[in-house]
Write a structure and sequence with these properties.
Ribosomal Protein S5, domain 2, binds adenosine-5'-diphosphate, alpha+beta, elongated, about 600 residues, binds magnesium ion, Heat Shock Protein 90
Amino acid sequence: MPVIHVLPELLINQIAAGEVVERPASVLKELLENSLDAGARAVEIELESGGVGRVRVTDDGGGIARADLMLALARHATSKIASLEDLEHVASLGFRGEALASIASVSRLTLTSRPPDARHAWRVEATAEVVAEPLPASAPPGTTVDVRDLYFNTPARRKFLRTEGTEFAHCEEVFRREAMARPDVAFTLTHNGRLVWRLPPQPLSARVRELLGEEAAAALLPLDESSGNLRLHGFVASPAFSRTGRDQQYLFVNRRFVRDRLLAHAVREAFHDVLHHERQPAYVLYLEIEPGLVDVNVHPTKIEVRFRDPRAMHQFLFHALSRTLAQTRAGTQVTEAVSSGPAPPLRWQPSHPQTAMALTSGEPAAFYDLLFGRSSRDAESASAQAVQQPAQDPQAPPLGFALAQLSGVYILAQNQHGLVVVDMHAAHERIMYEKLKAALDGERISTQRLLVPASLIVSALEGAAVQEHAAVLERLGFEMANLSPTTVVVRAVPAPLADSDPVGLARDVLRELAEFGPTRVLTERRDEMLATMACHAAVRANRALTVQEMNALLREMEATERSGQCNHGRPTWTQITSAELDKLFLRGR
Ligand code: ADP
Ligand code: MG
């Protein structure tokens, strides 16, 4: 019979470290948040070997009294909350009291601190189990936490660490987020002795410009909206500056960087009709809300939050952003025609019917040939019948037969009820999406080797995803390899997407993997990612389709589940009945 026993303290901390200390970047995040909570005005970060060798953070904050030094390293010891009441209104970044204990259990940690009124500093050293008594030390007021040799005593975790470059890239992203959250605080960052960032205290706009770069900054529109006790401020990039990845999306709730589905959804909705759906908006947004109205204790790393009134939050964010974006509308290339609802979907130009209806297969004769498989000799008589035939044939396919392509966007077809208008891109995208879903449901998506491999430049994080997540990429139908940490060669793509641009496709998938990791990509984010992939393959507007291709598309739509809506919920086709057409021409009255 197995006996039940209480786990040793060290092991408990190491288990907690599994949740909180995923990699050097998580150490950096916890240390930076402690410094900010301590009221630091200047924070200095020194990293070595991507943070695996060392993460050292020095601040000029309030410090820790000698009597509390040992406690600071103990689990569930915090100065930030004392009761449930406090927890429900917590305004500090930390409150769980487990970061230092967890980090200390998987590294060699030294904590040196001096409150402003102390005559000198005190230092404690913790190497896994052993926490020595504090010793006097010399240091200016503030705190230094020095974390060396991460995972030296937990080889199983060390195995998951990636190259120095990858780990550094993760650290730098953490740095960017914290620095963006607090422009009033000065930061410096060095890596292996080399200065990477030096940021003075500065206005928010200047901080954002430094961290995002000039190109993005030039496109940023300021925004500041309040409603009751809610405030949203910051910047959104005008839709013209959109991205293919989510790498420039920063959202802070009470100065805490979060990834929140609800808020992200509100942002996406606001951009919905000003941005092509495969493009990603860039933004830096700060939501200020009374701490009691948001629960930050949802996730060990606090990256997710829960709002007391999610609907109200969604509404507020959506409307605040929509108002800002409305200012940009006049100058941007936005088609508002593709709206849902049964409004007349076609604006007929009676004086230019020929230019509006271009037959893409050239001769009308050839067109009817394709449609009914007749020889061109019969074409003329066929043209008269064509109008009748589908209406009388109960076997006729529901979406009928293609007549022509309109404006490079729509397929016009005729079925037994009258005219069918199909948004060809939306329809094709849906079909590709359903195909990919089905393929992934069975084992994996089949692969098509490229005749000419394509290469692309990516970020260090995305580059790292190539080796890190090779198995997932393979399941998705890709074959990629690193030529360098930031150069990737694509050798094979998913077979259903063989005709799409391999570079854009690979880029989007790597971004997704780098950001969300393989597990989420294959579970909760799976459909979103497949939709993005499908979008690459879908026929672009303005591509001329032959009638054959158009009919093939109509048949695939009929055979595809949920093909009545595109992946974004807009209709893919609409019917205009003969009766409606008759009405337009005042026929039969
Ligand atoms: P938490 O931040 O959740 O309270 P931590 O384990 O990160 O837990 O830190 C424990 C305690 O150590 C904090 O509550 C705080 O009192 C103290 N502390 C940690 N880092 C600093 C720092 N840089 N300056 C002042 N106090 C600190
Ligand atoms: Mg903390």
